[in-house]
Every structure is written in C-alpha cells, then in structure tokens.
C-alpha cells in the first residue's frame, strides 16, 4: 500500500537510533522512497553511510548546504514528501518542535513541513514521565502530530518503564494508517469498553479482575484508524489512550454501566471487551478494615449485566461480546451468545500461554449466531482487533445489501 510514497525519516541522538536502520529497511522493502535526515547527536550512534547505503539517497545533516540546484535545503527536502517521520524522537527534539525552535536541518524541516508528522519517542522512563515532556507531547498532539509509543520495557539504563521505541511494525502501521487509510468504518460510531473495574471494599482495597485493557484499547485504535468515531469507556489501566479516540474513564461496574447507557443512543456498533466485576461489596466501609486473626466474611451482591442489558435494546446495532474462560470455551461462549442476543462473541481461554490477561498476544475463537466457529491463530492483539472489525464490516455490508450504512 505504501508503494511510491516519499517519507522523510528524522533520526535523533538516542541509543535507539540503531533501530531506525531496521525501520528504514522495512519501509524501503514496502516501496517507500525514504530520505534520511540526521541530527549531529544521531551521528554519534549510527554512521550516515549506513542510512545512505540502505536508502539509496544522500543523508542530509547540514542546514546550510545547498542542493544541486542551489535550493534552500530544508525547503527542497520537504518538497514532494508525503510524511515526516521522526524515530527515535528524543526529549530534546520534542521540546524544540513544541516550542517552534529551528536551529538545525530537522527542526527547520518540521517548521517548513505541511504534511503529516509521526513521532516515535525514545528516552529514559523518568525523562518521559517529566511534566515538561508530557506537556510538549500534548502540544504536538494538539497540532495533529501522531505520537506512536513509547513502549514499556527494559531501557538502556537498566530501568523498567515507559520509554522504549515502539515496535517497528507499530510505527509502520501508524504511517500506513495516515497515508493509506481504509475508511471502511467511517459511517459507524463504535462504542468500546475496556479494562477491569475496581469494586471498593474500603478506602484501601478493592475487588478486580486481572484485565490490562490491552485488547479493548487495540480495538479502539483499530476502529479509529478505519474511520469510525470511536468512544472508549475504560476501567483503570496504565495504557495511553489511542489517538483520535474519545476516552471516558470509570472505576466501578456501576459507573461503567452509566457511561455506556449514556452514550448508547449514539452507537451503531458496541464492543464489550471490558472484564467487568461480576460482584461488588454490598456495603463499602468508610475506613480501612483492620487486620485480625479471625476470618473475614464479605457480603457481595451481583453487578448489573451490562452486555445483556444492551442486548435487550440492541435494535439495528451490531453487538459484540467477549468471554474470558478457563475451560470449555466454545460451549460457554455459545450460551452467552444466545442469552445476550449478540452478533458475535470473542472467546479465549485465559489459562493458555500467550492468551491471558496482560499479554501482548491473544488466542481467540469467534462465534456467530449461525453456528460459525472461527479459531484464529496466536496473533498480536492489534491483529486480533483487525480480524474482529473485518467481521463487523462484513456484517454491516450484509445488513445493508452492500451499501454503506449511515
């Protein structure tokens, strides 16, 4: 899909600069003409010759060098480019972009650029968390810059936290979504729930599932990328909200129910991916429950079945549920599919390696009311989200006789 596109790749002075070599290789193999711009600091990590050899183009580093036709370099370089991609983007370059500084070739390119911009931050965790960096990223997002990542993991300092350069495929996917948008959900309003709910026992403790919210967030990211107006109702997670998604944060099952029902009238598609607590304490204690040597008995009451409630008033909406099980997955999912009047149910055995809560992958079975059972291979959650939304698009086309809904 990227064949024939021209991208300017900005590489800055991060230890992750070596990963930009692989990013260049992947883009080039996809048919992209990549023109690399390096900062002086970036040259301390990777030699310009590496990028020049792989891209087939001279690497640009000097603001004051004129091109062969004596054009001003930062103006000439951006001519004909479809996108500016900066990966890795350091805290320094992010600050310069956010404050309009232009003291080298890359910052001048950013100021002169009129095409979409994608940034992939990479830095130490404490740097990334600093309010200045967060404010600068917020400013860039407000200007329409697409920020990809960072990922959470072990950093060069040995610290574990946010700051790793996003995976290469995630960066390429973001570029693809901008330059080659699918748009097959552009007539839909997709309401998605994600994450766990927390049911307070006292001011310190709560009941919760192990859900990380990653599957629901992947669905929201994919829906927005395909043109849907996307509303994400999220329980407590540590995840960054996807670009272009309206985020509603909640804590308890009752709050999630209220948020979903308040927005239900707008939705044409509802995907309930949240792992909502089935029970909540009958009474929340106002002060911390003191530890003692005697057993503690909790009086729990059922939470509302939000999915079943939506199914009873589904109308023309497409309704998708999730079933996280630990055995007999298909039979249990089929029962839920019928009882809750779903169009699809996505089931998985969370006891399977790579399919449990918090993993980056999922191993699911998709069932429909006609008896269809589709087992997907182990896939990254974003790819699972793509498969689910493909089925939703197909269902909408069948309901409208191939016409675009709306």
Please give a structural write-up:
With 406 residues, the chain is of the alpha/beta class. It folds into 2 domains: 6-179, Flavin prenyltransferase-like (Rossmann fold), CATH 3.40.50.1950; 189-399, CoaB-like (Rossmann fold). It is 33% helix and 22% strand. It contains 13 helices and 21 strands. The strands form 6 sheets. The protein has an 8-stranded mixed beta sheet with strand order 12-11-8-13-16-17-19-20, with helices on both faces. Strands 2-1-3-4-5 form a 5-stranded parallel beta sheet, with helices on both faces. The longest helix has 19 residues, at 381-399. The two termini are 27 Å apart. The relative contact order is 0.09. The model has no long low-confidence stretch (mean pLDDT 88).
Salient structural properties:
2 domains, 406 residues, 13 helices, alpha/beta, five-stranded parallel β-sheet, Rossmann fold
Describe what is shown at a glance:
With 406 residues, the chain is an alpha/beta fold. It folds into 2 domains: 174 residues, 3-Layer(aba) Sandwich (Rossmann fold); 211 residues, 3-Layer(aba) Sandwich (Rossmann fold).
């Amino acid at each position: 899909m990227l064949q024939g596109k021209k991208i300017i790749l900005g590489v800055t002075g991060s230890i992750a600069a070596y990963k930009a070599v692989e990013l260049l290789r992947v883009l080039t193999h996809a048919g992209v003409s990549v023109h690399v711009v390096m900062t002086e600091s970036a040259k301390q990590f990777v030699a310009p010759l590496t990028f020049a050899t792989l891209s087939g183009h001279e690497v640009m580093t000097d603001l004051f060098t004129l091109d062969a036709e004596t054009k001003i370099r930062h103006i000439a370089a951006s001519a004909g480019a479809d996108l500016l991609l900066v990966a890795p983007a350091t805290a320094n370059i992010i600050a310069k972009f956010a404050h309009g500084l232009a003291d080298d070739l890359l910052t001048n390119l950013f100021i002169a650029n009129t095409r979409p911009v994608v940034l992939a931050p990479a830095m130490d965790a404490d740097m990334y968390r600093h309010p200045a960096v967060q404010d600068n990223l917020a400013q860039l997002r407000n200007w329409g810059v697409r920020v990809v990542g960072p990922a959470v993991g072990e950093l060069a300092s040995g610290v574990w936290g946010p700051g790793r350069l996003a995976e290469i495929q995630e960066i390429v996917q973001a570029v693809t979504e901008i330059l080659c948008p699918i748009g097959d959900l552009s007539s839909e309003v997709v309401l998605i729930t994600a994450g766990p709910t927390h049911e307070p026992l006292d001011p310190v403790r709560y009941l919760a599932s192990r859900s990380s919210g990653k599957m629901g967030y992947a669905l929201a990211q994919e829906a927005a990328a395909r043109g849907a107006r996307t509303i994400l109702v999220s329980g407590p997670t540590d995840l960054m909200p996807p670009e272009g998604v309206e985020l509603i944060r909640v804590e308890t099952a009752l709050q999630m129910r209220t948020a979903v029902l308040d927005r239900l009238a707008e939705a044409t598609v509802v995907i309930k991916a949240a792992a909502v607590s089935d029970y909540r304490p009958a009474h929340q204690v106002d002060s911390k429950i003191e530890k003692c040597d005697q057993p503690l008995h909790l009086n729990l009451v059922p939470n509302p079945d939000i999915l079943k409630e939506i199914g009873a008033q589904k109308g023309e909406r497409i309704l998708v549920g999730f079933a996280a099980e630990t055995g007999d997955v298909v039979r249990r999912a089929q029962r839920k599919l019928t009882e809750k009047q779903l169009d699809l149910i996505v089931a998985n055995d969370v006891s399977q390696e790579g399919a449990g809560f918090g993993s980056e992958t999922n191993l699911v079975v998709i069932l429909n009311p006609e008896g269809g059972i589709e087992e997907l291979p182990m896939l990254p959650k974003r790819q699972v989200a793509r498969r689910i939304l493909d089925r939703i698009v197909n269902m909408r086309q069948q309901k409208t006789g191939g016409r675009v809904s709306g």
